[in-house]
Amino acid sequence: xxxxxxxxxxxxxxxxGGGTLVTVIILVFIVVFVLEKGLPVLSLSFLFSNxxxxxRAGGIFPTLIGTIVLPLLAxxxxxxxxxxxxVYLTEYTRESRITKVxxxxxxxxxxxxxxxxxxxxxxxxxxxxxxxxxxxxxxxxLAFMILPTIIRTSEEAIKAVPKSxxxxxxxxxxxxxxxVRRVILPNALPGILTGVMLxxxxxxxxxxxxxxxxxxxxxxxxxxxxxxxxxxxxxYILAREGISSENAYGTAAALIIAVLLVNLTAYWLMxxxxxxxx
Amino acid sequence: xxxxxxxxxxxxLLVTAFSAISxxxxxxxxIIKEGxxxxxxxxxxxxxxxxxxxxxxxxxxILPMVAxxxxxxxxxxxVGAPLGVAGxxxxxxxxxxxxxxxxxxxxxxxAAIPSVVYGFIGVMxxxxxxxxxxxxxxxxxxxxxxxLGIMILPTIISISIDSILAVPQSYREGSLALGATVWxxxxxxTIRAARSGIIxxxxLGMGxxxxxxxxxxxxxxxxxxxxxxxxxxxxxxxxxxxxEMSYATGLxxxxxxxxxxxxxxxxxxxxxxxxxxxxxxxGKR
Amino acid sequence: xxxKTILLPLLVLSILLNGGCGKGKTPITLAxxxxxxxxxxxxxxxxxxxxxxxxxxxxxxxxxxxxQSTISGAAQIGMADLVVLPEDAKALxxxxxxxxGIAVVVNPANRITxxxxxxxxxxxxxxxxxxxxxxxxxxxxxxVSREAGSGTRSSFEQIVTDITLTKDALIQDSNGTIRETVxxxxxxVGYLSHGLLNAKIKAARIDGQECTNETIAAGKYTLVxxxxxxxxxxxxxxxxxxxxxxLSDPGQQxxxxxxxxxxx
Lengths: 278, 285, 264
Known about the structure:
The structure holds 3 protein chains of 3 kinds. Chain A is mainly alpha-helical. Chain A has helices spanning 5-38, 44-48, 61-92, 97-110, 114-128, 135-160, 163-171, 176-205, 208-213, 231-240, 245-277, and strands at 51-52, 57-58. Chain A has one domain: MetI-like (MetI-like fold). In chain A, helix 10 (231-240) runs antiparallel to helix 11 (245-277). Chain B is an all-alpha fold. Helices cover 78% and strands 1% of the residues of chain B. In chain B, helix 3 packs antiparallel against helix 8 (182-211) and helix 5 (115-134) crosses helix 6 (141-165). Chain B is globular, with a radius of gyration of 23 Å. In chain C, the strands form 2 sheets. In chain C, strands 1, 2, 3, 4, 6, 7, 8, 9, 11 and 12 form a 10-stranded mixed beta sheet that branches. In chain C, strands 5-10 form a two-stranded parallel ribbon. Chain C contains 9 helices and 12 strands. The interface between A and B is large, with 81 and 83 residues.
C-alpha cells in the first residue's frame, strides 16, 4: 500500500523538526549547564583578583591577562602578514598556477589540527629557538595557526569588491596602491574584520597549542618572555585535576561569554559595515 | 607612505606575502622533515599496521590509534550528520524565515565554544551516564563520538543551510507546479541539488573531528588498544601526540611527527574532497 | 593603513617587551613531576614573598619532561620523582628534596581496604579483571594509569616489579587527573602521590601497611620514591639559593606540613 504523500510529508516534518529540536536542546543545554554553575561565581572581583592556592580560591586575573595578550600578539603578527599576502595575491599578481597552489596550500593549512601546531611550536619555538614556555612562543604559534584563515577570508573579501570599483579608480588616475588603500580595503573591511574576529575567537578557545607553548604559569606575566595561562588552559587544569569545581565553572562561564562577545561583535561589525556601504 | 612610492609598496607587499607563505611552508616542511625519515626507516607498513606501541622498547605501531581516530570520526558522523542535515533541512525549508535567521547565527555562535568545555561536560555528564546505563568505564569511544558529533553539528548545519538556500527557487517552483508536495520537492529536487554542499559540510565536519584533541583526551580514556565495542576506551592519533610529545625524544619524537604527517595527509585529502565538492556545485550553476 | 594603526599595536608590543628588560628579576622555570608540582608552587610562592629578585614559574608535564626540559634548557630546574634516574639525567646534578609515597587508590564506595603486592601486580597486568576476585563486589575493574613519561608510573612499576600495563588501562596525564578519575568511577583503581590524597578517594593498605608519613619514614611502606631537583651543571646563583631554601628548615617544614616527606 502506498502511503499518501501528505502523510509522508507530515512524518518528515515531525522527524526533521524533532531532529532540529534535539540539536537546539543539546547546544542550549551545554551553554546553560556551564552558565548556571559558573555565573554565580563570576563577578568583577573574580575576574580581577589573583588566584590563591593555585586556583583553589581567589580569582583568575592573570588568566584574563593571558587570554587578552596571547590572541592580541597572534593578531598583531598574523593580520599584517595575512592581509599583505592576500592583497599582493589578488591585486598585484595575475591568476596563475602559483597563486592556485598557494591558495590550495593555505586552505589545507587552515584545516591542520591545532595539536600539530602545538607540536611544531613546542619543538621549534620553546626548545630549538630557546624561547621557553612564553607568551612569545604561544603568540607565534597561534599566529601561524590563524594566518591561513586570515589570508583566506581577506582574499574572499577583497575579491568580493566589484571590479567596477577598481576600473573607476584607475580611470580616475589612481595608482594601484592608492586604489587598494582607498577603495578596495575599505570595502573589503567587513570581511577582513570577520576573519580577524574569527582568528581571535579561535585563539581564545585554543588549549592544545597554547598549553605546550605558553605553558601554564599562574603568575601575572611581566614580559612576553614569561609563561602565562589563558582562561581555557586554566579551566582545563582546574576541571581535570579537581582543584576547584566552582572556579572551573566560573572560568568556563567567563570563557564562553568572552568567545560569544567576540563572535557577536564580528557579526555586528559585519552587518554595520555592509549597511553603511549599501 | 608617499615617500615609498608604488614600487616600494609593491616590494613591501611582496616581502610580506613571501614571509607569510614561507612561514607556513616552514611548518609543513619541518613536520615532514622530522617525520618522513622515521617513516622511511621504520617502515610505513609496520607503523600503520602494528598494534605494538611501546616507545621505550622502540616499538611504534599506531594501529590502535588509527583505528580509534577512524571509529571516533565515523561515530561523530553517525551522530552529527543526521541531526545536522535534518536541522538544516527543517530550518531552511520548513521553519519560518525569521526563525531560521535567529537560530542559524545562534548555532554558529555555539561553534565557537572551546572544545575543553565540551570535553568537560562529556566527563561530568556523559561518561557517568554511559557508565551507569551501558557499563564500561564511561570514558569511551561512545562518549568521544557523541561529544564530537555535537561539536561538528554547527559546521554541518551552517554550511548545509547555505547550500540548500543556494538552490534556485525555480527548481522548487517547477517541482511544485508538476504537482509534488513540499516534502517530495525537498527530497527529490532540492536536496539532490544541494547534495554536494551538504556532503562537503559533512566532510569538513569529519576533518574537524579527526583533528580534535582536548575533548577526546578528556572523554575517550586514552587506552592503547583497538576497540572491540563502543564502550571501550580508546586513544586517538591526536591524543597520542598530546600525551607524549612533551617528553618524547629521539625516535619516539620522530614517531610523533610521523603521526602528524599521517594526520596532515588525511586532513588534506578530506579537505580537498570537500573543496572539490563545493567548487563542483558552484561550477554547475 | 595609516600611521595610527601601525603605531598603536607597536606601542602595545613595546610595553609588553619592556617588562622583560630592566625589571631585574631572575626568571627560574621549574618543570616536571606533577606529584611535586603543587609543592613546588607553594615553595615558590613562599620564597618569592621574601625574595623579590626572582620570578619562579612552575610547569608540569611529568618527570620525563623535567629531565628533557632541563637538558634542553627550557627549564632551569627539573622535578623528577623517579626511583632510578634515566641515562640522560646522569649528566645533571640531582638533589633529593623530599620523599614521596605512592598510594594505590580506589573509590570510597569500593569495599576494598587491603591489597597484597601480588594482587596489585595482577590487577595492573590485567590478570585480575573483576573486583570480586579480590573480595569486593562483582564489578569489572577499571585500571587507571599515567602516561609512559610519568615518574610516578615508572617508580610504581619498578617497585612493584613485573608490571606490563594492561592494554585496557585508561591513561591520564597527571596525578590530579587520576585522582579525579578514580573519584568519579566506583570501579576504578589507580596510583598517585600520597601527598595528593584527599577525601575524594581511598588509599588501600598494601601488604597490611597504610600509606602514611610514619610508615614511610619507618620503612614499612615500600612504595616510596625520592623527589629530585635536577640542574644542568652545578647549581649556582639564584637557582642554588632556591634549592637551598627548599632544603632548609622552613622549606622542609612546608613540604612536611602539606603532606610530603622531608628529604632526611
